[in-house]
């Protein structure tokens, strides 16, 4: 059901200048994503958007065979989570869907295997009568490249005393039949195998304490190696084994920043060797292990889609790729088994992304797809790096994007990112480019509490959402005004998820700073969030981030300060949001209505937290376009 409630109904059709690009060029779903190359390197499977639907398309390289459409969804009942080749013939397609479990809102995942021509669909987790339905059914922990008929999966098929117990199963990709290879254990977050495909490591979470256990290659019993509470500087993340069965790679803090270490499991003191570190940023992401080289060659930072490579051969390959594509950040998305063929995403802040197929033997690169083809000739603007000084003297990094040929003081959008433990980067953002195309300067900042900039920067925002983080965002807005960029009468704060919370908080605590606020999927009541989190297994993690003091949580909740809001507010929320409950949007709307404030509330039918349904994304952007044009116009527009 779609809800559209206007406190004050206005009909306004904005005039579109010739320089403005149609909304759908930005707000349509990306044309092609998730490309994966088959093991022999002759077929590419990817998710392609067609007429509001997403389809799995398989194309052959260099052949006359027509592309095959083997799966489709409109993203309403289910969304495609990921794709991967199980072998040269079969693909794995993982799906996620909003659901309810024991009366609680949840996200469920499912996994199917299908032949590349669209035949032979197999449910990878068929259930017996005495087995519970696992919430997550797509946790493949090892593709077993030497065994084309099987993969290893982590599944919670039973429970005891109300606790889920996860085991590891060898699953046949052709039939779904499975055999248990690791006994189920309670409180498991993750299982990991070594390079010989033996289950060697597990990560548990219980009452806010993370425990990492490893066993020797020929032993059955696991021994605890590390134990630490949420948010501790002693925390580490295992990211994979090396060729040596006793070499475990982990991410851990080094001089305040996360770095890659190699741990010698055979040493009594678990000796760590620093492998790779950055001077002023965290290393994050996945280990890159080359089966061809027989060793770890680098790590992929998922937050920025960058590869950090230390193996000489792969450094040479990476440099050659940069020479061939000098104007973009080049992310290696997929390799053939022999690593001679590959798929790369070439993108930048002004280039949304081209997908290319590379052949190292032929020395060729061929474009086969694009993320936002309608933006090819638009003239997107570059994000300029900035640093401003917060009120306590701390430097806050960020980016500003300004319309081309802009002059004078500009209508400006303050765009705090979600999370808050994420970060804004220089990479392409369809939100940012859309707003700039509409004539607004956009300021984004990595306030304290953002991830990726070190432990101290991250922890400084913990439990201080309405204090430290809010102050950093406010100081960024005032910097834009004091720098002569922003028109002080035309500044709006816009954000999604935590950014939506920040937008609502901003207009409540800074009534003289912002002309309006837009909040997509916003948190509005931290006490409500804390209470509901108790029903889920990550409740201690939530409390560690937002704090536990009831009075402080009330003081930090926009819903409880609606009477202080002076500016018009637009709230958009997905009906089936499973990250931030739609109740937060509804309750904030009710509070503003009771306080007799100007508020527009729109609920997106079947909508999730990520605007996954194309019609929802288009609707949300059209609503924002209209709202911002009305409230950031140089001259007030008459109501009709």
Topology:
Elements: E1 3-6, H1 23-27, E2 32-37, E3 43-50, E4 53-60, E5 68-73, E6 79-85, E7 90-101, E8 104-115, E9 122-123, E10 140-142, E11 150-160, E12 163-172, E13 178-186, E14 188-193, E15 199-206, E16 209-214, E17 223-229, E18 236-241, E19 247-254, E20 257-264, E21 272-276, E22 286-290, E23 295-301, E24 306-309, H2 312-324, E25 329-335, E26 341-348, E27 351-359, E28 364-370, E29 384-389, E30 395-401, E31 410-414, H3 430-437, E32 441-445, H4 455-459, H5 465-482, E33 486-496, H6 498-509, E34 516-520, H7 526-533, H8 539-546, H9 550-555, E35 569-574, H10 582-594, E36 599-604, H11 614-631
Parallel strand pairs: 31-32, 31-33, 33-34, 34-35, 35-36
Antiparallel strand pairs: 1-36, 2-3, 3-4, 4-5, 6-7, 7-8, 8-9, 10-11, 11-12, 12-13, 14-15, 15-16, 16-17, 18-19, 19-20, 20-21, 22-23, 23-24, 25-26, 26-27, 27-28, 29-30, 30-32
Helix pairs in contact: 7-8
Offer a few descriptive terms.
640 residues, alpha+beta, Rossmann fold, nine-stranded mixed beta sheet, four-stranded antiparallel beta sheet, disordered N terminus
Describe the protein:
A hairpin with a 2-residue loop joins β3 and β4 (53-60). The strands form eight sheets. Strands 1-36-35-34-33-31-32-30-29 form a nine-stranded mixed sheet, with helices on both faces. The protein has a domain at 381-631: Rossmann fold (3-Layer(aba) Sandwich). It is globular. It is an alpha+beta fold and 640 residues long. 42% of the residues are buried.
């Amino acid at each position: 059901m779609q809800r559209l409630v206007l406190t004050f109904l206005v009909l306004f059709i904005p005039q579109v200048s010739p320089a403005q690009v149609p909304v759908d060029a930005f707000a349509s779903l990306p044309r092609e994503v998730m490309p994966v190359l088959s093991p022999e390197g002759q077929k590419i499977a990817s998710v392609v958007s067609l007429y509001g639907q997403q389809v799995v398309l398989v194309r052959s390289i260099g052949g006359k065979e027509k592309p095959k459409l083997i799966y489709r969804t409109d993203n309403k009942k289910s969304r495609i989570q990921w794709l991967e080749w199980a072998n040269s013939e079969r693909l794995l397609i993982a799906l996620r869907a909003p659901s309810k479990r024991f009366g609680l809102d949840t996200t469920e995942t499912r996994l199917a295997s299908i032949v590349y021509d669209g035949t032979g669909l197999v449910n990878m987790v068929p259930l017996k009568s005495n087995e519970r339905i696992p919430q997550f059914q797509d946790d493949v922990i090892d593709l077993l490249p030497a065994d084309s008929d099987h993969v290893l999966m982590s599944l919670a098929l039973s429970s005891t005393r109300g606790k889920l117990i996860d085991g590891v199963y060898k699953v046949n990709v052709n039939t779904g039949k499975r055999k248990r290879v690791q006994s189920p254990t309670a409180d498991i977050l993750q299982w990991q195998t070594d390079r010989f495909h033996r289950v060697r490591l597990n990560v548990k979470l219980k009452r806010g304490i993370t425990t990492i256990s490893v066993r020797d290659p020929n032993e059955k019993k696991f021994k605890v190696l590390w134990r630490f509470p949420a948010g501790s500087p002693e925390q580490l993340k295992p990211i994979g084994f090396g060729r040596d069965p006793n070499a475990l790679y982990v991410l851990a803090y080094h001089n305040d920043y996360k770095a890659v270490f190699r741990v010698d499991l055979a040493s009594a003191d678990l000796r760590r060797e620093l492998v790779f570190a950055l001077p002023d940023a965290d290393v994050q992401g996945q280990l890159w292990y080359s089966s061809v080289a027989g060793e770890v060659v680098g790590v992929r930072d998922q937050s920025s889609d960058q590869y950090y490579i230390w193996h000489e051969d792969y450094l040479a390959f990476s440099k050659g790729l940069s020479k061939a594509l000098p104007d973009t950040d080049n992310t290696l998305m997929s390799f053939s088994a022999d690593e001679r063929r590959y798929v790369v995403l070439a993108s930048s802040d002004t280039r949304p992304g081209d997908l290319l197929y590379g052949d190292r033997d032929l020395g060729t690169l061929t474009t086969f797809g694009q993320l936002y083809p309608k933006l090819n000739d638009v003239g997107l603007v570059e994000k300029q790096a900035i640093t401003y000084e917060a009120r306590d003297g701390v430097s806050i990094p960020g980016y500003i994007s300004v319309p081309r040929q802009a002059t004078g003081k500009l209508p400006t959008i303050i765009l705090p990112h979600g999370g808050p433990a994420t970060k804004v980067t220089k990479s392409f953002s369809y939100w940012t480019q859309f707003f700039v195309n509409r004539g607004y300067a956009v300021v984004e900042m990595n306030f304290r509490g953002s991830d990726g900039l070190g432990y101290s920067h991250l922890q400084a925002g913990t439990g201080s959402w309405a204090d430290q983080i809010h102050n950093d965002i406010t100081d960024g807005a005032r910097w834009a005004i004091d720098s002569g960029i922003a028109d002080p009468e035309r500044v709006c704060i816009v954000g999604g998820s935590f950014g939506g919370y920040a937008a609502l908080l901003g207009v409540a605590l800074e009534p003289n700073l912002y002309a309006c606020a837009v909040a997509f999927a916003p948190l509005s009541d931290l006490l409500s969030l804390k209470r509901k989190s108790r029903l889920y297994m990550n409740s201690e993690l939530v409390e560690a981030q937002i704090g536990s003091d009831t009075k402080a949580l009330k003081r930090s909740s926009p819903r409880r300060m609606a009477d202080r809001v002076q500016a018009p507010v637009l709230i958009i929320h997905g009906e089936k949001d499973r990250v931030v409950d739609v109740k937060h949007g509804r309750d904030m709307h009710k509070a503003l209505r009771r306080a007799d404030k100007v508020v527009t509330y729109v609920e997106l039918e079947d909508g999730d937290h990520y605007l996954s349904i194309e019609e929802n994304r288009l609707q949300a952007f059209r609503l924002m376009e209209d709202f911002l044009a009305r409230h950031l116009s140089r001259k007030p527009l008459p109501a009709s």
